Amino acid sequence: MEGWQQQPHGFARGSDETAQRQVRRIILSKWSGLLAGVMAVAAVSGIIALVTPRVHASYLLVLYVLAVTAVAIVWGTGMAVFTAVLSIVIFTYLFVHPFFSFDVDDPSNIVGSAVFLATAVVVGRLTARLRRAAMESARLSEEQSALRRIATLVARSSPPSAVFEAVTREVGLLCGADLARMERYEEDGMVIGVAAWSRVPGQLAVGKRFSLVGPSIAREVRETGRPVRVASFAGATGAIADEARAIGIRSSVGCPITVAGNLWGVIAASTKGNEPFPANTESQIANFTELVATAVANADSLEELAASRARVIAAGDETRRRLERNLHDGAQQRLVSVMLHLRVTRDDVPAELPSVRADLDRAGEELAESLEDLREISRGLHPAVLTKGGLGPALRTLARRSPVRVEVHLNSEARYPTTVEVAAYYVVSEALTNTTKHAEASRVEVVVEEQDSTLRVCTRDDGIGGANPRLGSGLTGLRDRIEALGGSIEVISPTGHGTTIEVSLPIDRQVGESAD
Q: What are phi and psi of 191, to 5 degrees?
């Protein structure tokens, strides 16, 4: 496109306009430095004029060092030298005999002025260097603090969205930008904003997909894999350029984010002002992109682990369902059939053979007990009532079978994803089992409710408490199941005050399985 030029670190439009802005800024800075030097010398001269009736003027020349130092702190060595020379000229004209002329009667005054000039120049240069060193130290300290904050988030395995938002904010603040955005490349060739920050009115879009048609940071980074700059979006076409002009962005700088050797995304800082970003901006941003890459890699690993755990749990549930069906349709039906035949055979035995009939009765009782045991095993594998009726009927069945009185409060009879219902069922089942065996409780309350796309399950008993969630394979297995679904479990069991188990299960977003 006309006006856009490829550069070593990216591309720019209107380079002449940028150069003109830089020249104007330099000129303005020099004029402000000259004015500051003149005003500082005038102020010191006024002080010397007030003091000379009591102190000889030659002792007061050193006061001009204050003016030189003040100018050097803000405007650097060049303006400090100008201020030192101006100080000698003004001092010679106003306070060296003969007054109001540049003639000098005493040669020692010339030597003193030369010594002062050299001293002032050295002081100015040292002051300017110290200022630059202090500014660089402060910048590095601020950058390291920001990097530590992000590194802490990454080390804590914080959600990627939290890391993205924090990185975008830190990059924007560190670069002195007005806006910043992190974008992720999509497989279809588009880019989507994943985090944004702004300290001015207007916000870059998040969650919106953009095509890479027309000039943009995202397009050039994808094509070159290197940091790029945009000096102006004036006259550029494309959705990203349109957005930049609508918000008032004048220029941007961006760096690629590479994960495991592949280009993952880009982070860009933008300004509404005319002054371009400093030359080291790309290196500052690059330090953060490495942390973003680590966070993305960690998140991918955690997601793969969660998906693997979910697949294992789903496979186990399916195996239990299959075993339950096989037991119900196979072994149980055959045992029922054998019981019926046994009863018919017992009824056909003559009354004069009471011992035979008694033996058949005992065999029938043992067969009935075996059948009941098999049914208990079947229910433990996977409750058929949960599959057929849902969570409500299944929990009420658990309550009826519990030796401890159980109150079930279910706010909805809606069906949930299979993995959610199974997890909630086993939470209550394990809680009732532990209560019966260990809690010495007289009452259990079960509360199930849906809040903000989350199913919350809570069991409370009035037992002796003191349960240790780290002990026992039951709670450990529940924790694995719940965390694999992206949920959380908390066990609260103070000694003497009962045990509470609180579980949160996301409904809408499931790892490895969609809602039924």
A: -135, 145
